[in-house]
Amino acid sequence: MNWYPQVGAGTIAQLPVTRTRKWRAITNNLESGEEVMLPDTTAGQIDWKLTYQDLGSAEAQSLSSLFTASQGQFAPFAFVDPLANLLGWSEGLSQPSWQAGLLQVNAGITDPLGTQRAWSLANPNTGAQVLQQTVAIPGNYVACFSAYLRSAVAGTVTLERDGSQATVNVGPLWTRASVSGQGASGASQSTFSIVLATGQLIDVWGLQVETQPYPSAYKQTGAALGIYQETYFGGDELTMTNTAPGLSSCEITLISRV
User: Fold this and answer.
1) Distance from C-alpha of 29 to C-alpha of 59, rounded to nearest angstrom
2) pTM here?
3) In angstroms, how far is CA 83 from the centroid of its own chain?
4) Fewest Cβ atoms nearer than 10 Å: which of 7, 139, 158, 222?
């Protein structure tokens, strides 16, 4: 399966991005005059309009190569929603999407917004323990994993993406921490983790993974969404316009089946 390429420092798209969700319903008009309408659950799609400016030669070539490999509209590829939080159940840490090991995980903690949507994580064990979730994005994608953290006792917490780590200071005030970069080379998925040392207790809220170098505004999620394995180019022509030596611009329309 081919993946839609990232450009620049590691983004899927340049702003603005137009995302249009479409649904289809089937209507039957009965002889009695009654109308029965049912959703056609297999016909949903998302239309994307992506506009790029100042693409370097390598970036323009990566888009052109995918278009050639896909034979225009013919073959599907995988596309990641550039606006999505890719984690499932970002405020449901007891859901099967999360692996908590031997951590004690409790809900109902006051979050930075003043509601009770944060969680406490406690590690009473003799070794480090992790809260983690695996996301089906390739290792060579740049991604940012972020979370709001707090601890009554000042210390440090480690955020991980595969082998990449960021150790951050935590204290009694909520702070947003993140780790950014590529994952394991050649991997078909990436695992994002919060590591707690022996005896550590922290509060956590607003966990987020997005395919860009820096965190954006937090987006709450339910079931994991945002990765579309059946995406097509919206036309059989891809026009690259040279705007300066070594720079190009283009507009691309994509259609994702959902």
Assistant:
1) 51
2) 0.91
3) 8
4) 222
